[in-house]
Specification:
single chain; about 290 residues; Metallo-beta-lactamase, Chain A; 7-stranded mixed β-sheet; 6-stranded mixed β-sheet; 7 helices
Length: about 290
């Protein structure tokens, strides 16, 4: 069986294409019998522009999976619900806290402020087109696709910050991003880790995935890794672990990884390992 993974929304698009780029993330994962959408990007109209060029119908999607509750990964949901014609509720897999209010701290001159970065508010009627399956432990979606589960063990640097906050009681505090959820695709060549933002930290997620799927090689890593604020030394450390512990998997990084981080990894591993992942990038794997 062949599994195809297509990047349908991202900060960069393939040159020479009419595909639209935008801040955020979305992957379309499909076999002949199953279609899964992972995240919906920031702008639903741009997402559906890309769907049209790729001959993707929202009504044929079997599962929707959210990597976390930030607006650049959930913003296209309203358009998805508006255009989806299927009468069957779309099974939507996410962590329970994905629906909580999330904000970011900002500062302009001497003013400090907060602004919403959580999932957009959806009217009750369109929401009936969804059937939420809230999961915290690793969850098997299909025989070949799993979620990472909540990553609590974070010995390595993660992708949270004092700027990204949620509410605990009456106080806005640093968001631990427990809703961060990556996907694990099983293939004949090994595991493919598909990340939305990887706020739990790439090395932390990899460690948990390796423990959950013992004796399985990490073949590829796709998506955002939220290393944009990492120092050069921290990126070198990530590279060291990828090489020594995981056998240098193929890297298709984008979004919040940071272009300068991708270039540093490319300088170390070369273009045969670090490859582009733009809107329109399509990868096929045998299961």
């Amino acid at each position: 069986m062949k599994i195809t993974v297509t990047n349908v929304y991202n900060n960069t698009a393939m040159q020479g294409s009419n595909l639209k780029k935008g801040h955020g993330q979305s992957f379309f994962i499909e076999t002949e019998s199953t279609k899964i959408l992972y995240d919906t990007g920031l702008n639903g109209k741009d997402l559906f522009h890309n769907f049209a060029l790729m001959n993707i119908s929202s009504s044929t999607i079997d599962y929707l999976v959210f990597s976390h509750g930030h607006y650049d990964h959930t913003g296209g949901l309203e358009e998805l619900l508006r255009l989806r014609k299927s009468q069957n509720p779309l099974l939507t897999i996410a962590h329970p806290s994905i629906l909580e209010s999330k904000k970011a701290r900002g500062k302009k001159f001497w003013f400090s402020y907060k602004y919403d970065i959580g999932m957009p508010k959806i009217e009750k009627k369109p929401l009936k087109k969804l059937k939420f399956k809230f999961v915290e432990t690793p969850y098997q979606i299909t025989p070949w696709l799993y979620t990472s589960g909540v990553v609590l063990n974070r010995e390595e640097r993660d992708g949270t910050s004092e700027r990204l906050i949620h509410k605990e009681g009456r106080k806005w505090v640093r968001d631990p991003m427990l809703d961060d959820l990556s996907l694990v695709l099983k293939t004949k060549k090994g595991l493919v880790l598909i990340c939305g933002c990887c706020h739990a930290g790439l090395l932390n997620v990899l460690k948990q995935v390796a423990e959950n799927h013992k004796d399985e090689k990490i073949h590829s890593i796709l998506g955002g890794t939220h290393m944009v604020a990492f120092t050069g030394d921290e990126v070198t450390h990530v590279g060291d672990i990828l090489e020594s512990r995981y056998g240098t998997p193929q890297l298709y990084l984008n979004h919040c990884t940071g272009n300068h981080i991708i270039e540093q990894l490319k300088a170390r591993f070369g273009e045969n390992i670090v490859k582009p992942c733009h809107v329109g990038t399509q990868l096929s794997f045998d299961y």
